Amino acid sequence: MSPATTSSAQGYPPSKEFAAQANATAEMYDRADADRLEFWAEQARRLDWDTDFDQVLDWSGAPFAKWFVGGTLNVAVNCVDRHVAAGKGERVAIHWVGEPGDSRDLTYAQLQDEVSKAANYFSAIGLVAGDRVAIYMPMVPEALISMLACARLGLTHSVVFAGFSAGALRSRVDDAEAKLVITTDGQYRRGKPAPLKAAVDEALGSGDDAAKSVEKVLVVRRTNHDENLPWVDGRDVWWEDTVDEQSATHSPEAFDAEHPLFLLYTSGTTGKPKGIVHSSGGYLTQASYTFHNVFDHKEGRDVFWCGADIGWVTGHSYLVYGPLSNGATEVVYEGTPNSPNEHRHFEIIEKYGVTIYYIAPTLIRTFMKWGREIPDAHDLSSVRLLGSVGEPINPEAWKWYREVIGGDTAPIVDTWWQTETGAIMISPLPGVTEAKPGSAMKPLPGISANIVDDQGNPVSHGEQGYLVLDQPWPSMLRGIWGDEDRFRETYWSRFAEQGWYFAGDGARYDDDGALWVLGRVDDVMNISGHRISTAEVESALVGHAGVAEAAVIGAADETTGQGIVAFVILREGVENTGEALVKELREQVSIEISPIAKPREINVVPELPKTRSGKIMRRLLKDVAEGRELGDTSTLVDPSVFEAIRQKRA
Ligand code: 6R9
């Protein structure tokens, strides 16, 4: 848990010019405090409803919420058609930039055509509202089109990050019983095409091992790298032969506000990822409201760019549903920040005149490492607002971001939220809040949070406690797919008596009442803003024939926030081949989970530190990995274990 929190930290008041034109106002907090539900009803009315709702919130089945009860709407129509109907069809929705440098602009009218064609095809193959669709794609326009086409038909999408392994895809496909998988032939990795369809084939298996739910695999041609792409006749179809042949007209239906819009799997404290369920009306209301107010978005003027991948929640809420429901023009970039070189992001900002830029602190720190002469070589004067998400931002990175990318004037919104919260929850309001570098400041109007101790008592300013959300909010998760018990247990059991949502983060207020999020208090690591559980990596390591036991921790890392450090015990008789073994183990994790989960460091040790009740003492391993003096070791069975571990690392 990092950043230093002093109330004397310099604040950055909004400039008069910014405040004068800001969407958000201080008065919004008062209005929301006076009548929270009425405030949310007002936000919901920013959307087009087919049937108006007759009740804002039904919390009688807590912790299962129902928002905007009785209301019906079509999410895709709200994101696309209504802008076309309002005469904005010629506005660019998406400036897409491919990794090899190709590009494509899609107007709202074109997007409407593409989404309609895809929806017509999905219907033609027999998919009906409520069916699940897995999307395993790089950041190509068809990925966003697919998500919107699902939304249009009431199909629940489950986007699986294309950097995840075949195994990870399979478990998600099985858990959701997806009928359709959408993918690409390949994806670009640092300028070179790499196979992706092959991973889908491996995931879906064949014969007795075949994924039973899957009827079709729809393939977008992206890399065209393989003339003999493996193909399963009857199951596999090309997008160009099917979707592209459909009519561009499609009449949408309206769905209940609570209809499940998507599932998104995220790491929990156990090895098995959970499918977080999101709704339609409540989710879109908050994604849309936060986009308008937190990013101060001005229709027809701003160019927004969120650097996240659609495989994460940030890509759902701020690449698809938030911006498009507001009629925004946005950049969607397929590649990594350093392909073909470190100038890429700044060239894109310059070329498209990006005004609002939203990335993770880990990327800001990477930019810092590359040196300011790189951004300085570009005209970034279009940038007027900066956002940060995914992990705590250290004050140095905050200041650098504002000065170097934001021309020393752009307000920064440090936005705290989670896959489970669906949309931004805690953030400064630009033009209103005097932000402090490193603090997410305070809950947005309409949101209520608190910091409490183990018993649920509010902690005093300066003290660390648990971050809880003590009132329901529209975009809150509606459950874990197929696992009601786990939903109650994970989020609602810690403060069951009070009925609060436990976020899993530690936080504190400073003397001025500004809120500082300190990081996870559970066994979830945060690597470059990606959530990975220690249990997942441990189970991948133990999956190697030579490993008897493994313990994994997230150790502080200058660039990535945390880095994965593993400690493993080998099975009897297995030879420690040093480097070769470490390489094999890292590979194992990469195959089972993803390259992003590869441990930075693997230590082969004779023993793991355990308490008398048999729990691995991760806290102590963290001390070792971060080079600290050991804390209290008195509960250990055998404190001398550490000498052996330390010697191994020396
Ligand atoms: C949106 C997203 C959620 C976890 C969350 C917290 C960390 C996110 C943060 C932040 C400090 C911020 N986190 N934003 N910590 N300041 N502004 O990242 O969702 O992938 O589910 O991760 O990320 O620890 O609990 P998700």
Automatic annotation (TrEMBL):
It comes from Gordonia tangerina. Its EC number is 6.2.1.1. The gene is acs. It catalyses: acetate + ATP + CoA = acetyl-CoA + AMP + diphosphate. Its cofactor is Mg(2+). Mg(2+) binds at residues 542, 544, 547. ATP binds at residues 390-392, 414-419, 505, 520, 531. HAMAP family: Ac_CoA_synth. Pfam families: ACAS_N (PF16177), AMP-binding (PF00501), AMP-binding_C (PF13193). The keyword Ribosomal protein does not apply. The keyword Magnesium applies. Catalyzes the conversion of acetate into acetyl-CoA (AcCoA), an essential intermediate at the junction of anabolic and catabolic pathways. AcsA undergoes a two-step reaction. In the first half reaction, AcsA combines acetate with ATP to form acetyl-adenylate (AcAMP) intermediate. In the second half reaction, it can then transfer the acetyl group from AcAMP to the sulfhydryl group of CoA, forming the product AcCoA. This is Acetyl-coenzyme A synthetase. Belongs to the ATP-dependent AMP-binding enzyme family. CoA binds at residues 189-192, 314, 338, 528. Residues 83-481 form the AMP-dependent synthetase/ligase domain. One of its GO terms (molecular function) is acetate-CoA ligase activity. Acetylated. Deacetylation by the SIR2-homolog deacetylase activates the enzyme.
